Amino acid sequence: MCAQVLVGHGGADKLVFHDDWPTPRPKSDEVLIKVGACGLNPTDINTRTAWYSKKVKEGLTTDGGRGGFGAADAQDASWRGLSINFPRIQGADVVGRVVAVGSSVPPSRLNERVLVDPWIKTHPEDPTQCEYLGSECDGGACEYTAVPSTHALAIDSDLTDSELATFPCTLHTAETLALRLDVQPGETVVISGASGGVGSAAVQLCHVRGARVIAIASKSKHDLVRSLGAAAVVDRNQPQLAAAILKAASNQPIDAAIDVVGGTLFPHLLEVLRRGGRYAASGAIAGPICEMDLRSLYLKDLRLLGATVTPVGTMRRLVKLIEERRVRPVLAKTFPLRQLREAQEMLMEKKHVGNIVVTMEEEE
Question: Where in this chain does the record put each Enoyl reductase (ER) domain (predicted)?
């Protein structure tokens, strides 16, 4: 089969295209999926470059994404703080059709159109123990991939494969952030990185919950972010960012903050939260090392939360939202599988809105 194979940590040259890679055989509890499309997300870049290593102190820069991070330690280069086994096929956001089933999977699943839940639970008694598709196990940057049948969720939608491939990681992560924060109707939520994959999904999910969304994005992307449900959008380059956020909220207190950016943005988000406000992070593309005035935390009784592993059953709820068209895809561009390097380059430049997807077609 055709596959983009990651052979080690470093620059984009570590992605090697093969047209003769072995097609996987499904285990007894697995299905084999003919991949239609596979979405990209920052985890792909973080894993390839070893950005997750604690020795890396900078954000996900274009230079770092192109050449890797020299300070990185391969021993803690994955999101779990462990090493990655190579070769590895990346790609967590998989949509396709079931073409073969393992011995314990009902044959009725054949030809089902499926969306894959990328959080592969490895210990049913402990849902926090899991592997991530494209990190600890092979993902969808290839023609065929095998996953546990329980993680291949049937979907009935007239959206294209490319549109559906924008959802798994971004919607999953955004939903986990909203769940951690317990976003309620009528609350005001500020969302950083609102034009990116997770940020744009978070805008939609908080809007669906009845919250008022104050989004942060570059000025050229404001109209699209508003169309997703944001009540107001603040320019991320605003010199007095905290004041601008509060002005956009009509100087009303901010109940919760969703942050996928980190870096110098972090203290501004804490500053605008009301007493007892909540903050949740699931990314640090602007930098993992942040300054913090502890008085902002304890004097305002704030709660700081992280969001990575999603609760069991999350993806099934999201499939229902997709089928009901309560959320919509934000597809920036598609690339053929052969051009995965170029697709990752576009992702690193951060000039797009929404998600980038690779397809198994030579031209889209």
Answer: 10-358
Cα 318 from chain centre: 14
The predicted pLDDT at position 55 comes to 87
In a domain, 341, yes or no: yes
Per-residue H/E/C for 112-168: CEEEECCEEECCCCCCCCEEEECCCECCCCECEEEEEHHHEEECCCCCCHHHHCCCH
Assign 68 a pLDDT band (cuts: 50, 70, 90): confident
pLDDT(338) > 60 = yes
Instruction: Examine residue 197 and state whether it is found in any structural domain, yes or no.
Output: yes
Q: Which residue's structure tokens are 């949740």?
A: 280
Shared domain check, 86 and 13: yes
* Six token digits for residue 149: 């049948």
Looking at the fold, whether 54 and 136 belong to one and the same domain comes out as yes
Determine the pLDDT at residue 310: 86
* CB hemisphere CA count around 234 (13 angstroms): 27
Angle CA(133)–CA(138)–CA(139) in degrees, nearest 5?
Answer: 55
Q: How many CB atoms lie within 10 A of CB 288?
A: 18
The reply to whether 174 and 120 lie within a common domain is no
User: pLDDT, tens digit, for every residue of 13-39?
Assistant: 999 999 999 999 999 999 999 999 999
Query: 181 CB contacts (<8 Å, ≥6 apart)?
Result: 189, 256, 258, 278, 280, 305
Statement: the pTM of the whole predicted model exceeds 0.90: yes
Q: What is the pLDDT confidence band of residue 71, given thresholds at 50, 70 and 90?
A: confident
Instruction: Mark whether 353 and 283 lie in a shared domain.
Output: no
Burial annotation 12-28 (CB, 10 A radius, 16+ → b, else e)? bebbeeeeebeebebbe
CA–CA–CA angle 18, 40, 121 (5° rounding) = 90
